[in-house]
Amino acid sequence: MFFQIPLVLFNLTLNSVTVNNGELSIIPGIGILSMLAMHIGSIISGCYVLVKKYKSASGILKLQLQYISGGFITSLLLTIIATAVLGVLFNITILIPISPLFILIGLVIVAYAIIRHRLLDIRFIIVRSVAFLLLMLFIALGYIAILFDIAFFLNRDRPSLETLQELILPALLALFFAVTFQPLRRVFEKLTDKVFYRDRYDSNDLLWSMSRIMASTLHLSDMTKQILSKLLETMRINYGSIVLVRDKSIFRVDSDGDVKNHPFKNTDIYTLIYDSYHSTRHGEHIFIFEELPEAKVKRLMREQDLTIVIPLTVRKELIGGLLLGQKSSGEIYSSEDVDVLKILAPEIAVAVKNALSYEEIRKFNITLEEEIERATGRLRAANRRLKELDQLKDEFVSIASHELRTPMTAIKSYLWMALNQPNQKIKEPLKKYLDISYNSTERLIRLVNDMLTVSRIERNKIELRKEPTDMTMVVQLVYDELKITADEKQIEFTFDHPKAKLLVLGDKEKLREVIQNLVGNALKFTPEKGVIRLVAKTQKNTIQIAVSDTASGIPKDSIGKLFQKFSKIEYSYSKHSSQPGTGLGLYISKQIVSLHNGDIEVQSEVGAGSTFTVILPLYQQPKGGDVS
Amino acid sequence: MAQSKHILVVEDEQYLRDLYVQILKKEGYDVESAVNGEDAYHFMKDNDYDLIILDVILPQMDGLQILDKLEKDGKKNRDNVVLLSNLGQDLVVAKALAYGVRGYMVKSDYTPEELVNEIQGYLSDEPVKSKL
User: Fold this and answer.
1) Quick one: which H or E segment has residue B34?
2) Which of B94, B108, B111 shows the shortest C-beta gap to A463?
3) Which ipTM did the prediction report?
4) Most buried by CB count within 10 Å: which residue of A104, A119, A132, A464?
């Protein structure tokens, strides 16, 4: 093009223009060929670029390119018809002078594209141009003024300085302009931005803060609130809403901006979101009010006072929509705005989907907690009930034993009275019958007592009144009590013990029952003129009380069963006794000793006798403590 | 024996009450009896006994409630009270003894003779089995 300028200047392109009979006669020069080449070349290369762009373009860009090419093809065709076809072939030159006007048609179409389809950010260009022009004007005026001064100075005719000044001053000026150009440009840009381009923002900044909001917030309502607030603030939009849909209806709406004065009709909004998602308009899923043809969608958007509707989709699934109202300035959305929104929409969609999932998990957790709470409640109730039942069982056992023992006491007492009438001898076999009745009643009472004890042991209801207890004393009491019985059976009954106290920490009464039970057993089963020896001693940290008898002994395989409840062992004591036990005595004794952290051991030899040994931990008297 | 001792037998079970009254009278004691908690309370409130044999489970008011009520009336002396019951659980016994009574006897453990011996022991302040 620059190459063409001198050709035009030196009349090479057009040799001369003469007026013959009122008509223009143009005589082309040699330069017309290069001019032709230039035009054809630029048209071809322009077309090439257009076609190439058009092929790779999609959506609104494709449409924009259609407008551009359509506009220019129309202009070109008209120009060719006017100049080449009519002018050259038919020699009709009337249209040639107005042929440049055909360019206007192309320009109008492009202008339409600009306004309607955001072809070029024309405002931006205008603003930039104004800035540039102002700068140019400033520099030019400055230059002129300075040059004027220089010229004035040079006119004084001082050749010695002339050369130097001619060299230095332009150099300095060049430096000055170079240095001041950028800051000045910025100043004017800022100035013009303030006046013409108030809403300008850095899209990268916006996208970055949005990403940060989405990355840092998991709570759905917090996130949508922050997204909308940031978006509305940055783009200066009066209303924004993130709507979530599920199963063909709206289930959640988060709005920001002028919400109060904004209509919101669920069905219409849903229709808009649904339509935008299924819209094939320019291959884009976005409704922009200004770009829509007058139809249902546009009407709905007008009614709902919306300018932009973008569907939110995750993996092609529609989850909601981003609705935006007008810009506060009343301006239309710029292509930059729309680009940013197009980038944001899928990101928002994914973030919302994640937040929804999170919400679901959170709700699930809450449900789970409630469920656990309920289950725990049920367990508590069950536990309460069990405690009540346990209490009832205690009461039952208590009452039952009380109620059983009361009539048994009467039977026992009156039988005793019958048997012990003063000065009156009862005849046999009546005495025998009464004796049996009396003994059986005694046994029944013992059984009730033992079962009561077992029940208490098994429910951990047994109360031990533990205190430092001298086992020698305890055994002595039992010895004294049962000595008479032993004498009656002519049994040699001895008790050996050291002089020192044999202290254990235990329940005196319970331990006495244990010893009494063991000695009682020995007395029961040892035949007349047998031997029973009680030996109390310390061994290491224990106190051992051994009860040895010369009864028939217990087979080894039965020893293990001795301490079981109601053990029906092959070799049963009861077979050898006229006074059968309850079958609970040894079991109870073992449990009581266990509660004292002790044990009962058995050594027995059939035909020779048995030794039951109670082993209890020795009570270590605290230093300086006084034990009575 | 100081046979003029005044004894109150509180027992709702007729057979046992008759028996206790009979054997104690036979020993020469001055015996009175009450069949329920209400009567027992009034007897105990209005009279002084050398020994009171008090059942625990009673109609209208149980033995321990009687003691509570007497305490509120300012009659706090329980040295002359021996509980005689067929309740034998450790907890019940421990609770009863905490009232400061002289003793606790389980009815079914005693023959009439043993019971008389025990009571004589309490009255003569000699050591007895059930005195704790």
Assistant:
1) strand B30-34
2) B94
3) 0.85
4) A119
